[in-house]
Amino acid sequence: MVADANMQASRALEEVDRMLSNASMTAKRVGLEAGARCADVVLELREQVDSVLFVRSVELLTNDQEIYCSSLQGEYRRSIDVEAYVDGRVRLLRHSGTQPDSSLLIYRWVSGGRGAIVTIDGRHVRDALSMVRRNGTDLMLDVGGEVLGRDGIMPSGIVAPSDAIVLQSKLFPISVWAEIPKGELRRRVLADYSVLLLAFAVFGAILGLCARKALSLVGSRRHELERALRTGEFVPYFQPLVSASGGGWLGAEVLIRWEHPKEGIVAPNDFIPLAESTGLIVPMTRGLFDSVATVLSEAEVPDGFRLSFNVSAQHLRCSTIIRDCEAFLARPGMQSVQLVLELTERELLEPNSHIRGIFGALHEMGVKVAVDDFGTGHSSLSYLRDFDMDAIKIDRSFVAKIGENPASEKVLESILEMSRKLNLTVIAEGVERQSQAQFLRELGVPVFQGFLFGRPMAGEVFVRHLQGQQETDGVPVGCSSPSLMI
């Protein structure tokens, strides 16, 4: 059990290190924005909360110790107690001695009078301590004398027992200690070498149980996806694509969300990888086609309105993609839309005659194909070389660096120059500030997507906004520039 307790403490420390590493990277990323107007950066702070695992909130600092912008509250002022942070970086905060769920693990980053703090909900830490706990071992996180266990923060001044296993993090000023059940150390000494053999046996059994449990969890999650497919829990959200010149809607990207009956809205990153690895991504995308057609069946969708779907490489390998697109375009109201398939790079698409035949059939139907997240993956340029692509979507990481990183701006200029030579339409995603939009507009990017123009919205909200689009000279706004449609 000593070896087991040591392993439990090590795994718990790895989990908390991972949480703080996420917080550290987030703090450094957003901390560079410190000093900017809160109204200009608060959306970026909230996106970090939405996209980074474990992060509960992000706040910007001025003068090292005063908060002026928060992902939760927007613009507000509050001083922080710098002395309370161990090594100036980490703090374990109790909001209430009777409410363990309100505890927070906080990371602080400062540089040159600017900085950020990132908070992690204490329940994530408590969950990590509970998940690895077994055989009665108690696991505690110690941050400068503040101790958090699986049952919540304990009173100050608690120290590890003399026979406890204490592991110090090599990355952060924290430690995890495991309190071994009483008498275990004495039994280990008395057992001498026989316990070593037993430890090997126990360790092997634990590994076997962990492997079995991991496989069981994967199988259980797959069954959840299959059940959700049967009950229609995967729903479309829509984010507008707008004209850079006029601001009108040219179309929308269709994004999938899982409306779980118990967990609420589940983000794509939490289920798409498993759907791809199990082959469920194909029926999932097919179901999304059907849901979009149903949602838009009563709407007045303008001619040439672009509807863009993310598709996996395995779906594009199947001839069924052709039938899926035909069925979608045959639905009421969908005959006049411009269907676009955005190819993701999580799985490589091989250049062969079968794939090229599918691309040819799609183009004959009028379906366009775009490269998603262009500039970040290993296969972006090879896709342009090997396949007949119609458009590229500039990855948001390049857009985010506009005004900050001259190298990123040069890359954008090169992408635009290449796209003109290849006759490709360019869409910039992740546009959140007017300064970004102005730079891209001057560069010649014709289509924008991002929080500046609209967040992803549920189907009924999207239809209501679409119906509210005004007409100019009898032509729906957003469709007055056919040359921008791909």
Automatic annotation (TrEMBL):
Instruction: Indicate yes or no for the key word Cell wall biogenesis/degradation.
Output: no
Matching SMART domains, A to Z? EAL
Q: Which GO terms describe its molecular function?
A: cyclic-guanylate-specific phosphodiesterase activity
Top EC class for this record: hydrolase
Q: Which InterPro entries match?
A: CSS-motif_dom (IPR024744), Cyclic-di-GMP_PDE-like (IPR050706), EAL_dom (IPR001633), EAL_sf (IPR035919)
What PROSITE patterns would the database entry show?
EAL (PS50883)
What Gene3D superfamilies does the record point to?
A: EAL domain
Which terms in the GO cellular component ontology are assigned?
Answer: plasma membrane
Query: Where are its TM segments located?
Result: 190-209
Q: How does it sit in the membrane?
A: Multi-pass membrane protein
- Please give the superkingdom of this protein's source: Bacteria
| Enzyme Commission number | 3.1.4.52
Can you give the residue ranges of the EAL domain? 218-470
Alphabetized UniProt keyword annotations: c-di-GMP, Cell membrane, Hydrolase, Membrane, Transmembrane, Transmembrane helix
Location relative to the cell: Cell membrane
Provide the reaction this enzyme catalyses. 3',3'-c-di-GMP + H2O = 5'-phosphoguanylyl(3'->5')guanosine + H(+)
Q: What is this protein called?
A: cyclic-guanylate-specific phosphodiesterase
Which species is this UniProt entry from? Pandoraea anapnoica
